[in-house]
């Protein structure tokens, strides 16, 4: 295989440079970022071969654990109830109640 491999930046998807040399702003760490990270982790668990950029993305610890957990909770939270009054309850009523 005499074909030369084109390097692709994992941050901006541009060609000809790696993420470390990227001059573009970093990608936001939003739901899509976490989804991509999860997909790469699953691929790694399935023993698929990942290139250096994908492995570096998996190893990126740029998000604090608390921030990541908070984001996951907000994105996955589902509040369901059959009682419609639950949504109208006022927490202040509890703190003002007389003993």
UniProtKB/TrEMBL annotation:
Domain of life: Eukaryota
SMART domains: ZnF_C2HC (SM00343)
Residue ranges of every copy of the CCHC-type domain listed in the record: 8-24
GO molecular function: nucleic acid binding; zinc ion binding
Residues passing through the membrane, by range: none
InterPro entries for the chain: Znf_CCHC (IPR001878), Znf_CCHC_sf (IPR036875)
Keywords: Metal-binding, Zinc, Zinc-finger
Protein name stated in the entry: CCHC-type domain-containing protein
Species the sequence originates in: Tanacetum cinerariifolium (Dalmatian daisy)
């Amino acid at each position: 295989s005499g074909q030369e491999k084109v390097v692709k930046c994992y941050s901006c998807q541009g060609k000809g440079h790696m993420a470390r040399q990227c001059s573009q702003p970093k990608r936001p760490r939003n739901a899509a970022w976490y989804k991509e990270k999860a997909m790469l982790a699953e691929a790694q668990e399935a023993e698929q071969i990942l290139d250096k950029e994908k492995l570096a993305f998996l190893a990126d610890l740029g998000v604090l654990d608390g921030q990541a957990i908070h984001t996951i909770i907000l994105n996955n939270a589902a509040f369901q109830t059959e009682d419609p009054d639950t949504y109208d309850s006022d927490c202040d009523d509890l703190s003002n109640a007389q003993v």
